[in-house]
Model the fold of this input.
Amino acid sequence: MPDDPIAAYTPPRVWTWNAANGGRFAAINRPVAGATHERELPVGRHPLQLYSLATPNGVKVTVMLEELLALGHSGAEYDAWLVRITEGEQFGSGFVAVNPNSKIPALLDRSGAQPVRVFESGAILLYLAQKFGALLPEEPGARAECLRWLFWQMGSAPYLGGGFGHFYAYAPSKIEYAIDRYAMEVKRQMNVLDRRLAASEYSCSGWRPTGSSRSWVAPASGRLMLAKRPPLPGRQVHTRGGV
Ligand SMILES: N[C@@H](CCC(=O)N[C@@H](CS)C(=O)NCC(=O)O)C(=O)O
Done:
């Protein structure tokens, strides 16, 4: 099939960057890290500065902060600043100084003598849980169970969900093999979550803060892991984009 650009493609022995490959992020992403332009980040009046966007990775942190505020932790007040990743704002010098990996979400804690930068959504959740002594079990076994689910979603959801979304929605040509591969693996991960939620109200459960009736909530995978146990057995948890 010489007319089929996908079937005709033979990978080179040494890959080189083709900036003009037509993908939606081709004009933004590069194979090297670092800032592409000078741009300071805005800073508001609250202790925590959140630089993010309402993507599944982004909402994990917003949900966590809102849960902390609902529990009465006023130190969790934050300013939320939009980072438009489709316009390359994650490569501004100020953002790169907070997250050298140029991905949202990123957090700057300015409550102490020195600002603390935190990037990677899972690291931010853990940082906030430890900082406020909340939403993370203290007993070693329960804590290990919580961290297992946190690390599970960090190792699965961002890259598999992101990979699926990329090939399903953004790739300039629809590659059946890539979409099948990612869709299958995302489905399997969602089934892991479904099974967990069939046995437990939240992905990480079993802890209640003293004097409160609030259940332990693990905002560990954005909208996906916040799904409570489905009321009917077998209800599926769906990702965006048709999986
Ligand atoms: N492992 C990272 C993944 C973050 C991530 O992939 N963020 C995406 C949006 S959901 C992003 O900033 N993409 C911009 C880009 O790839 O240039 C985390 O969990 O924080």
